[in-house]
Amino acid sequence: MAPTGQPSHFSHGGLVAVTHDVPPQLDELVSTAHRIRQAIESVIEGKSDAVRLTLTVLLAEGHLLIEDVPGVGKTMLAKALARSIDCPVRRVQFTPDLLPSDITGVSAYNQQTREFEFKPGPVFANIVVGDEINRASPKTQSALLECMEEQQVTVDGVTYQLDSPFMVMATQNPIEMEGTYPLPEAQRDRFSVRIAMGYPEPTAELEMLDVHGSASPLDKLEPVATTAEVRALIEAVRGVYVSQAVKKYAIDLVAATRHSPDLRLGASPRSTLQLVRAARAHAALAGRDYVIPDDVQDLAIPVLAHRLLPSIEAQGQRRLPEQVVADLLRRVPVPESRAS
After folding, report:
1. 3-state SS assignment for residue 336
2. Are 328 and 253 in contact (CB under 8 A)?
3. What distance in Å separates the CA atoms of residue 154 and residue 105, rounded to the nearest whole number?
């Protein structure tokens, strides 16, 4: 845990994050998050960065997109988080014939009462696991837009609120693979973070063979946190301090994507908000009640890259959005910090 007894100041934009003792709720947050992280890593070997980002998204009240080739543990990560928390969890297998009503729910006629009754869909849960989201049609994919942004669902003119916490964890295969539909920009923008699992290291893969060889450890995974605890953690994250200097740094970084010649679509204002929210959660998981520029830098690529569209020239040079963001991180001035 980072020490917080000494005050810190950011000279760019006037500072002002003075911190003293860590509030008790942050101590509880770190302890509970550690339990959840350990539970997930008992199932997912060698992917500590992916697990940390997943917890960051949960505490930042965001949604997670996991993109990678089949068989690297995308769905396993989503299921492990879901089972680590004692809360309602629903899984949706996206297929080309899936309808929007299969996700949101539908009004059905009850012959006994002679009235229409709403039958809630799988989106009415605290954690919704959408497996292979880009195998469904764009019409079905768009059924998630309202619930991800406004935490509500409207069916036949009636609006239903979703419980908190609410998190969509969606997996998708690379768009070059057969039978996939690319996610529209509007929907990608609603995912706070995109991560890639990547292939495991040989040592982690060997451990996986030992652990998963006879049975799935997911079957033995028990909840280590309650829904009420997660709500309290989210509330604690909301209170993490962000100085004007750090806010301006996040804005400058996002604005730079809009003026980059390597991009034909920069990051939206929603991405600025989600970058700051994620930075709060990142700081809290480190045991700090204030955000520093390092938090923003650590999250810039996973938060921004999937929202960007490269220019024709950048595509010709095979420059990925991740590389563009990395270049911007080196160019955009960082607020200087000094102890007092």
Report:
1. coil
2. yes
3. 10
The radius of gyration computed from the CA coordinates of the chain, to the nearest angstrom, equals 21
Q: What single letter denotes the amino acid at residue 221?
A: L
Pairing mode, if any, of strands 115-120 and 193-195? Answer: unpaired
The DSSP code for 241 is B
Closest-CA residue to 190 (of 63, 68, 104) = 63
Report d(CA 46, CA 153) in Å as an integer.
37
pLDDT per position as a tens digit, 1-58: 344 443 344 433 344 444 445 555 677 788 888 999 999 988 887 788 999 999 999 9
Q: What is the pTM of this model?
A: 0.85
Comparing CA positions, the residue from 79, 33, 99, 90 lying closest to residue 233 is 33
On whether the CB atoms of residues 195 and 278 are closer than 8 A, the answer is: no
> And the tokens for 112?
């006994």
- CA angle (297 as vertex; 13, 79 as ends), nearest 5: 135
Task: Check the CA dihedral 87-238-308-154 and report its sign.
Answer: positive
